[in-house]
Amino acid sequence: MSGMNLGMGLHQKQTMGMHLAPRMIQSMEVLQLSVMQLQEKLTTELQENPFLEVREKHATHEAPADGEFNADAPLKHDNTGDIEFARMDEINRDWGDHFNEEHRPSRSLRDELGDKKLEAMQNVADAPQSLQEHLTEQLGILDLTPEQYELVEFVISHLDENGYLLHHDPERRTPRPIPFDELAVSFETMTGRAVTLAAVEEALHIVHKLEPAGVGARDTKECLLLQVDDDIEHADLVAAIIQHHLEDVAHNRLPAIQRRTGADIETIQEAIDELKRLDPRPGARFVSEGTQFVVPDAVVTWDDGGEFAIKLTKDWTPNVRVNSRFADQLKDKTVDPKVREELIKKYRMANWLVEAIEQRRNTLTKVIREIMSYQRGFLEKGPDHIQPLKMEQIAEKVGVHVTTVSRAVDDKWVETPRGVFPLRRFFGGGTKNAQTGEDVAWETIKQKLQEIISAEDKAKPLSDEEIVDKFKAFGLTVARRTVTKYREAMNIPSSRQRKDWARTG
């Protein structure tokens, strides 16, 4: 008997798990989507699911009051669809075409969604001209034979995105220069015309004369040397530094350069300043890295009563609902069981999606409200006043699991009176101010680090240990390794590299 009870218990648990899993999975997936990703998902679902339709447009939605929704509670299952489908006995197969044509997004909706994307892109510059196009364009003004033109164009086609003549082999850690004989063989294979190594070398010299200066180089030194001309002040010293002292420049070892060149420190510093104006990646300016559009999921503003208000952005996503009238229309008594089963799935998926969107709206609103309540100092005074905050604290306030908070803030942005920020910016640890007892976020520590280094004497820059002492003077206890970690993360050089030798006298 006990074995029978055990079996029944296991069966019941498994059935419930299977019933809830698809809805909860969809709910978690929708919660994690950014507003732009949600827009794309809804556009696709509107095309594929005939039971979804668009409500009339409205731009933003007021945040719901606290207590309206429990984000971790199981979704309520609306069995209306099952009842309606139970009344159906059959369906005409021709309805399939009707669904595909009549209930995909209307042209006006598609145009509206397209307009939204155009609205974000209207101020974006056209894709830049490629490096190869830019260089080939210059060949038209040179006095080249048809054979030379073809070979130079061939060499140009082998330049990488930085403008170097390098072969990037996935099996090698570093790229290697493309040998002249390899180019010659490849050119003959492609055109059927043999060329000499001297002709290939001459073609490369022609590339070296094109703009931007430095293209066609085989390594960094050659790239920089190709950019040194008589117009550069201290050109000979700049060239010498490039050939023999790049490592010394990287480590700010100006006295070593002085010993080997005989130039005074001031002149060396001027030559290095000229060197820093050269471009080690001349082709990179022609690479389009794409534009990342940030669309805030929510807007936080001050109301007339001096309190902040939250509105979720809705004008970037179609407002959808379930179109249940099809259940009454599909009453043909010769229903195909397979068709009926598929339609039931579509109807349930439509319901689940609408519920998941509502859950996303409520959860996101509550999470943002609690974050802003905790970070009110940020709203009032700016990023310097972001407080240490852990996701567990927000999860406890909202009454959800910490993973729900993590999904809610993932890839989400909020527009505030202080600018547009990713929600994850408001989370992080910190330390205590020994003088005031207040919590200080690591974000504030980083900004203070920048201030300390900006105010230092560049003739005697502060070591990381001395920076630790500076923090102590402000009542802040920060470990040396933390200073080093943040300094490197902020691309701030070491004290040796920051030293200005020209000021040492």
Question: Describe it for me?
Answer:
With 505 residues, the protein is an alpha+beta fold. It folds into three domains: 245 residues, no CATH class; 156 residues, no CATH class; 75 residues, Homeodomain-like (Arc Repressor Mutant, subunit A, Orthogonal Bundle). It has 23 helices and eleven strands. The strands form four sheets. The chain has a five-stranded mixed beta sheet, with helices on one face. It has a two-stranded antiparallel ribbon with strand order 1-7. Strand 10 and strand 11 form a beta hairpin. Helix 6 packs antiparallel against helix 7 and helix 18 packs across helix 19. The longest helix has 38 residues. The N and C termini lie far apart (96 Å).
Counting DSSP E segments of at least 2 residues, the number of strands comes to: 11
**Low-confidence regions:** 1-20, 58-126
The proportion of strand residues reads 5-15%
Q: By helix and strand content, what is the structural category?
A: alpha+beta
What's the total helix number? 23
Total individual domains: 3
Spatial sequence of strands, sheet with the most strands: 2-6-5-8-9
Distance between the termini: 96 Å
Q: What is the helix content?
A: 40-55%
Main sheet attributes: strand count, strand direction, barrel closure: 5 strands, mixed
Task: Provide a quick synopsis of the model.
This protein has 505 residues and is of the alpha+beta class. The protein folds into 3 domains: 2-119 and 294-420, no CATH class; 131-286, no CATH class; 429-503, Homeodomain-like (Arc Repressor Mutant, subunit A, Orthogonal Bundle).
